[in-house]
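2024-03-11 09:14:02 INFO receiving multi-entity request
2024-03-11 09:14:02 INFO entity count = three
2024-03-11 09:14:03 INFO echoing inputs for audit
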Amino acid sequence: MTETAEARLAALGLTLPEPVAAVANYVPTLISGKLLYVSGQISMEPDGPLKGKLGDDLGIEDGQKAARVCCLNILAQARSALGSLEEIGQTIRLTGFVNATPDFTDHPKVINGASDLMVDVLGERGRHTRAAVGVAGLPLGVAVEIDAIFAIA
Amino acid sequence: MTETAEARLAALGLTLPEPVAAVANYVPTLISGKLLYVSGQISMEPDGPLKGKLGDDLGIEDGQKAARVCCLNILAQARSALGSLEEIGQTIRLTGFVNATPDFTDHPKVINGASDLMVDVLGERGRHTRAAVGVAGLPLGVAVEIDAIFAIA
Amino acid sequence: MTETAEARLAALGLTLPEPVAAVANYVPTLISGKLLYVSGQISMEPDGPLKGKLGDDLGIEDGQKAARVCCLNILAQARSALGSLEEIGQTIRLTGFVNATPDFTDHPKVINGASDLMVDVLGERGRHTRAAVGVAGLPLGVAVEIDAIFAIA
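2024-03-11 09:21:47 INFO inference complete, emitting structure
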């Protein structure tokens, strides 16, 4: 892939949101050695949160859309921290928390919304390890929260 | 901040507990390269666990107190592993698990109890990335569990 | 411990399964610097998943068996990534997600199934930090999911 991540984003018709500042005594990103840690990003769009619970009021596609939003927010934070998406060496880890009922079992399909977008934007540099689990609830009642670790190029 | 973390603790009227040994085939802390990993610390005070569920029998302030206790236990483990809180270079990551009902949505406010104390004690070195999620349950029925990664100074 | 991990596995009567390829845009393992990250491994045996919920249809021993299966899958992935279990320098972190009801409180006992096996196979190199929490649900309805970070020898 010789295209830049920004070109891929544009080709996908996507724009990264303004990265949201942390509203408490934590920070959205931290660099330690060659690793960039990104705080858990929720399914919050510029015009509001994507709320709901998988297995209750949300279907798989709703969840995938929420996971994509988390991924866009993660990339926005990474770009803000590193200056450019080209400074991402590799996406190392995503931990995907899905707001879901006790009988929901398709968490991987939901988090694929983020995994697929990560690779669409970053190519091989976007392939990552991950965990996908169902949680009892999430901040603001959002559908998905995902945290991330990147290796810096 | 020129004060030591110990001086800040004292000024806050706080004392770190004796770090609790792991009671199984895991360890409370591990150093790998320049990183210190701390096992999930629960809201366990020297005289017993802070139990309960947010959204059910616990209010936000109860949860914040439980998160503070987790933070004290994390700092106690870090001091034990490194010899001194001054050896902490930076708090890198906290993952906060809140024992909560499916409709609870204020997990960030709860985990702020830990985030605020971390910065109160360590200053800028205490600012961290984090995730805050609601889980179905926690060991012993405690209200909060938090794990941590530190960079060593 | 002068025995190899393979000899310990054999003495335990255990065989590592074929590592399962990721079925989406993520990867089972990634090496970054001296760390090996392993994606969340579920309680999936070669002949099918170990499903169920602690506190509901599963007892502690069922959960421990599921956690052992997760550990075997983690070790299989690590061996595949590194070429040999002898290339594991240290197990750094396990995060154990237990599929459990809101009133279940013995998550540590469940995850001990993985922690004990890790040390049985790797000796001191198998001692790790960990977190153990109860989640609302897991992929396919499995009982346990565990992700891992290793230091490379």
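2024-03-11 09:21:48 INFO post-check: Helices of chain A lie at 5-11, 60-82, 107-122.
2024-03-11 09:21:48 INFO post-check: Chain A has one domain: 5-152.
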